[in-house]
Specification:
Two copies of one chain form a homodimer. Chain A is of the alpha/beta class. The first copy, chain A, is built from twelve helices and 19 strands. The first copy, chain A, starts with a strand and ends with a strand.
């Protein structure tokens, strides 16, 4: 089968790889209907983090049809169209039951599988995959694929930021996750949604998703603008969807004392001074999003065409064009790239 | 009037100070019935943080009788016996209304007033002071005084750790705040309360307050013990009541993914690595405790003799003996010192 491999920074190739097969009785194999490139794939592409193996199979987002199941799999069957999270989970341990499937005691990071490929082995299929109500129309594919990571991650960020009626929510980051957080905050009923963005096209999509205010300033200047817009108090909650030192403090300082910061940008070089944090008085919660918690609801919202998160994809390429997709995202010519199969 | 002044590390004196008087129409003056020495008073005593002025009036915990009120004060009257928080607050701004009075937009840290004294000026009296149902019996004084800071701080830590029925709560720190957190977790219905302690007398009080398990190991060894006691998962919530790098990570690593860390130890030299924190998946919330939020309930529980937090005081001295009180706490001969007036 064909799949994407990264050999080092800037070096992405589409190659023949060993076929995906059942290894454990709890596995399923799916034929991908679409895959995509994640902002987090850019960290090793830019040399900002090492590869775990060389070459490394890439990709952790996926939708597709089940082609084979292991002997113990009961919740999905061959032929089902499924969506899964970027972290495989048993969905039965106490951590999963509390809604933190991404930290399941048996979790498997799907990045180790590599879903930018024709087929993929899905570990813990019963706890990981959610079948759609039927075979989806083609125009739903981008949105269902978004649910696999960026939508679910933005959703978790908005939930962690306690977005809800009467609330002012700020969003740091105008990438696919930040934009998904806008959509989530709107759906959760936030009254005012303030987005930090300097890109006209992303500002426009943010407004379409529900943003009420756009701030172009960054860092503490940006946070000061949020305070100015909120009677000096700051946002009730803020989603951090970047992962740098500046963006993290921008999020914390945009939030009022007692408010909520949901941080979902994978932290790179972030150091939080304990005393500074102490006096902000915010709630800080984040980490790898437990997308599986939200999948049934998100799939239904997409199926009913209530939300259209697939709009975050602004470049579509065949799997064989993956290298160009990485370049386009690296050079910010694309927000998020969908790979067709 | 007599009051405690700190001239530098290890140098505490009781001296004549200018009388407390009404400055703003929102002020009250109280005659202290008792005051005490806080663990946080030891930081400058040990040279671990600078004095804000030299000499510095000391103390921020207080109970007493109102002797004078400003023209705008309506909620308390001369003769009332009152308890207040270590942070004065207007109790009307949006931050106060959300229950974060310690971060009130008009907050005044009572440490700048210095309540280890015969009298004290209380700013924002209407929003800060809570009158008891009547003049208290003498044996209630220690508990009412504890409510002014350590009890309310431990309570906030336990609430931030989401202590409640069915929950396992770990407590890092066996000082007066940590012990108060044990009492709070018990009152809030926690099923299992695990306390880290190496001191027999504090272990004994912890058990009296509701601790079910004691762990003597510290750091990651201590956290590993909590995991061992909880089926490999970790505590549902943990209170951090020390404020060092080791204690902070001990608390975080004692907590399961998706769990809650309430940190109320004033951070000294704590640096949190963003990526490490990201993958723990915990909720982190803390800061200067909004004691005012809890005061009406805590006063009633004490008045009804439902709780007896005054047991955290294990040395009582007259105000004139303050220097010996500081020495006893510094040398760990006392957990918490009450100063009589």
């Amino acid at each position: 089968m064909r799949g994407v491999m990264m050999y080092g920074p800037g070096d992405v190739r589409v190659e023949e790889r060993a076929d995906a097969t059942i290894v454990e009785p709890t596995d399923a194999v799916i034929r991908l209907a679409a895959s995509c490139i994640c902002g987090s794939d850019l960290w090793p592409y830019r040399g900002a983090e090492p590869l775990s193996v060389t070459p490394q199979p890439m990709g952790h987002e996926y939708v597709g049809v089940v082609t084979e199941i292991g002997a113990d799999v009961k919740n999905v069957k061959v032929g089902d169209f499924v969506v899964g999270s970027f972290v495989a989970s048993d969905n039965t341990c106490e951590i999963c039951e509390a809604g933190y499937q991404s930290r399941c005691i048996h979790n498997v990071m799907m990045g180790s599988v590599g879903t930018q490929a024709e087929y993929a082995r899905i570990p813990l299929a019963d706890g990981t995959l959610v079948a759609t109500p039927g075979q989806p129309d083609a125009d739903l594919l981008p949105s269902l694929l978004a649910a696999s990571d960026v939508l679910g991650t933005g959703w978790f960020g908005a939930v962690a930021a306690e977005a809800g009626p009467g609330k002012t929510i700020a969003i740091v980051g105008d990438g696919a996750v930040g934009l998904s957080a806008v959509l989530a905050a709107k759906h959760l009923g936030a009254e005012r949604i303030i987005v930090f963005s300097r890109h006209a096209d992303r500002q426009e999509l943010a407004r379409r998703f529900g943003a009420t205010d756009i701030i172009e300033e960054r860092g503490d200047d940006g946070a000061a603008k949020v305070k100015e817009l909120t009677g000096g108090y700051g946002a009730h909650g803020t989603v951090e969807a970047v992962g740098t030192q500046e963006s993290m403090w921008q999020a914390i300082h945009s939030t009022r004392a007692g408010g909520y910061v949901g941080y979902v940008g994978v932290s790179h070089g972030v150091k939080l001074d304990g005393l500074d944090l102490f006096f902000t008085g915010v709630h800080l919660h984040g980490g790898p999003a437990p997308v599986r918690r939200f999948l049934p609801e998100l799939i239904q919202l997409i199926w009913d065409r209530t939300i259209d998160p697939g709009q975050v994809f602004d470049l579509t390429l065949p799997l064989e064009g993956a290298a160009e997709g990485y370049r386009a995202m690296d050079e910010r010519r694309a927000t998020k790239v969908l790979l067709t199969l």
